[in-house]
Amino acid sequence: MRSLKPLAVLLLGSLSAYPAADAKHVMIPATSFDSQSNFDADWDYNYPWGTDHNGAARMSKSQVSMSGGTLTITAKKVSGEKPATHGGKQIPIKYLSGAISAKEHFNVSRGGGYDFSGEFRATTTRGTWPAFWLTAVKGWPPEVDMAEWKGSGKISFNTFNTSSQVKAKDVNYPSPGDFHSIRCELRDQNGKDLAIKFFMDDKLIDTQYGRGFVGQPMYLIINLQMEGSSGSPGPNEDTVYQARKLEVWSYNP
Ligand SMILES: *[C@@H]1O[C@H](CO)[C@@H](O)[C@H](O)[C@H]1NC(C)=O
Ligand SMILES: *[C@@H]1O[C@H](CO)[C@@H](O)[C@H](O)[C@H]1NC(C)=O
């Protein structure tokens, strides 16, 4: 054992120098859904702004569970909830569902970037609207929909420069009963704009560009909204959305 010591010190020394040179470090490790204490280190329940947003579901901690490293969000039909208010309009609440948001904010710095990845099992039933996305902490945009499913049988990948200047890529979503890997690579392109690469099952699906997204902090959200952009009526039976092996790596210098 004793003779190994100098070697161990040498190895540790060179290993710890490597990430600094590569400017790569983990922000959310793949183990964040392994236990409640791991979860609590990286995530909060609900949206960063509360329980309601732009659809027929109100978010509740009761609808989020973890088992064997998999996060499960269940939307269930309810009645008697007061309506949500969004953009000056009232939206009837017909479901209780779940959302989680990362405690950290993600702000691409000059020469930097992030990789967001995970495996998702998402429903494509009409009226179900699961999503894995980034949105602005201050004002809006940036918004990057790293994956969303709008009840059509497709998966959508979107970047918003403004509410009308949107690059949206919809592709067929195979076997929704299975887990599919999603990866989104964000990189500073020119000191102002982001280049965003969207992968499904390790295949590049689209490259989009976000104007002025460098230096803008973003929230990371995983949620199961209902109706809204995914149509109505939504299902009467429970809907499940699952995520596992969720990881975030930073390439910020
Ligand atoms: C985001 O990063 C930029 C520099 O890249 C910095 O000026 C700004 O303060 C950061 N914003 C937040 C909220 O951390
Ligand atoms: C958003 O802005 C970027 C950077 O200016 C540009 O390359 C991209 O085409 C714009 N997207 C849309 C949909 O106009």
UniProtKB/TrEMBL annotation:
Q: Which UniProt keywords apply?
A: Signal
Q: Which GO terms describe its biological process?
A: glucan catabolic process
Report the domain of life of the source organism.
Answer: Eukaryota
Span of the secretion signal? 1-23
The record's InterPro entries line, in alphabetical order, gives: Beta-glucanase-like, ConA-like_dom_sf, Glycosyl_Hydrlase_16
Molecular function as annotated in GO: hydrolase activity, hydrolyzing O-glycosyl compounds
Q: Which residues form the GH16 domain?
A: 21-251
A Pfam family that this protein carries is Glyco_hydro_16
Specify the protein name.
Concanavalin A-like lectin/glucanase domain-containing protein
Give the originating organism.
Echria macrotheca
